[in-house]
Specification:
3-stranded mixed β-sheet, single chain, globular, alpha+beta
């Protein structure tokens, strides 16, 4: 990894504090790479360079006085387009919001700035953050730096691509159905979906909305597990409504070696989500390396619930969230459409229509079922420290801008439903669990593959620590050949 652009945010923070490089020099390094490589990738879609240069200059002046502004002092970074950054557009890919320029920063934006970071721009998303790809009418299509004919994932695809290509030092995304995790997998970087509610999402919303959404979280992407831990430290903790009465104290993992871990592996679920042979081979190699390092690895252990039932619960609750704020005419049309659906129609579109008109009574029943599920997970994690599973069953696939409800993916020669691939990310999502994605290898065509590390509720530090130990055993991030 000869190019210094691929150093981690933690490494850069230490280098700046040691005065081996200045904040403005480091900003120039990344802006030069954005100038050179972003026209091909279209990952960084909005910048405020005057403000970024002002912040970098302030960081250098402060350090000259012996003052460190925070743990990310002088480190350049980007944020997903859906975060509010004062003065920059927040569109969520909607042309109608092209001129929406928030007057205040999101909570996460401000916490990164308060930690000394130099936020210089935003990264691309799909329309309404609702796809495994990242394209929209406002900013166009983002490409994967490992193969520019393929997707970088979504909805935090622009951020994952920018990290992989060395265009930024750190990134923050969001996730309801894999939107941090599948881009990390597709682009070969690290991502962390935190326990629901521990990082305030205020300012990551459409204009005027303040209420946090069920299942949805905000969280970091990075080139190392160490950076995920650092970003979590910077951003986690109560928002202003709760800050006067409680604080967050995530326990540090008690285990410091892979051989101390009790690991469950759930690497296939054929009836619900196909996993490509090459992806499975990478997962198997990672599991074998973990066992060789001395960990107790159990390939048969499962939480005590039915996987299909849990998946259907996830779809119902997630689709209810994602359709809850549709315009009134769309809601009224769904009320008519749902009466015409056949009871045995379990297509994604039919599920979405039913979820969009769910009564509160029905949601309460689903939420009760979810609470039972959370307790089953809690019981499982009394015996195991982490559960390893796929992020998604395929490596990065070719761009497909066809009708989103008619798409398919070809896995080992067989066509599968596009939205079947949300299964693995839904397992921890519906139950509010933390999940860290770490790169574990590549396919024969050189496409990255990641592994999902699920832990107990509020066990965020454990999943991130496990990812760090795994990198010591099998290697971590590697840059794409054309960008190194």
């Amino acid at each position: 990894m000869a190019d210094p652009a691929f150093r981690t945010a933690s490494q850069w923070a230490r280098a700046i504090r040691a005065k081996k490089i200045s904040a403005h020099e480091l900003l120039d390094l990344y802006l030069d790479r954005v100038r050179r490589f972003n026209p091909t990738l279209n990952a960084v879609i909005a910048t405020d360079l005057p403000a970024a240069r002002k912040r970098a200059a302030a960081a250098d002046r402060a350090l000259a006085r012996g003052k460190v502004l925070g743990p990310l002092h002088g480190v350049p970074m980007t944020l997903k387009e859906s975060y509010d950054i004062q003065g920059l557009p927040s569109t969520w890919g909607l042309p109608a919001l092209a001129d929406n320029r928030p007057l205040e920063n999101a909570v996460v934006t401000q916490r990164f700035l308060d930690a000394g970071a130099v936020v210089f721009g935003k990264t691309n998303v799909p329309l309404m953050l609702a796809d495994f790809q990242s394209y929209n009418e406002v900013y166009g299509t983002t490409n994967n730096p490992w193969d520019e004919t393929r997707v970088p994932g979504g909805s935090s695809g622009g951020g994952a691509a920018a990290l992989a290509a060395g265009l930024t030092g750190l990134e923050s995304g969001s996730d309801i159905g894999g939107s941090i995790r599948n881009p990390a997998h597709f682009c070969g970087v690290y991502g962390h979906k935190p326990t629901h509610g521990i990082i305030p999402p205020r300012g990551h919303a459409l204009p005027g909305l303040l209420t946090p959404s069920d299942i949805s979280v905000v969280g970091p992407l990075a080139r190392s597990a160490e950076d995920l831990a650092l970003a979590l430290d910077v951003t986690a903790g109560p928002d202003v409504l709760q800050a006067s009465g409680w604080h967050l104290k995530l326990l540090k993992p008690a285990k410091t070696r892979l051989r101390h871990y009790r690991v469950a592996t759930w690497l296939e679920e054929p009836g619900l989500c196909a996993v490509a042979r090459e992806v499975r081979q990478c997962l198997d190699r990672a599991a074998a390396a973990i066992a060789k390092a001395g960990a107790k690895v159990d390939p048969t252990a499962r939480p005590k619930f039915d996987a299909k039932t849990a998946h259907e619960l996830f779809l119902r609750l997630m689709l209810g969230v994602m359709t809850a704020r549709r315009p009134q005419p769309d809601f009224e049309a769904a009320l008519v459409a749902v009466k015409k659906l056949k009871p045995d129609d379990l297509s994604f579109n039919a599920r979405q229509t039913r979820a969009s008109v769910m009564r509160h009574r029905d949601w309460a029943a689903a939420n009760e079922a979810r609470t039972h599920l959370r307790y089953r997970w809690r019981e499982f994690f009394q015996d195991y420290d982490v559960l390893l599973c796929p992020v998604i069953g395929v490596a990065a696939f070719p761009h497909d801008h066809g009708d989103i409800n008619s798409r398919t993916l070809t896995i080992d020669g067989r066509k599968t439903e596009y939205w079947d691939q949300i299964f693995w990310c839904g397992l921890p999502g519906v139950a509010y669990l933390p999940s860290t994605v770490a790169p574990i290898g590549r396919t024969k065509n050189g496409l990255p593959v990641g592994i999902q590390i699920i832990g107990p509720e509020l066990g965020d530090r454990t999943t991130i620590a496990f990812a760090k130990l795994l990198a010591q055993e099998i290697g971590g991030f590697a840059p794409p050949p054309n960008y190194a």
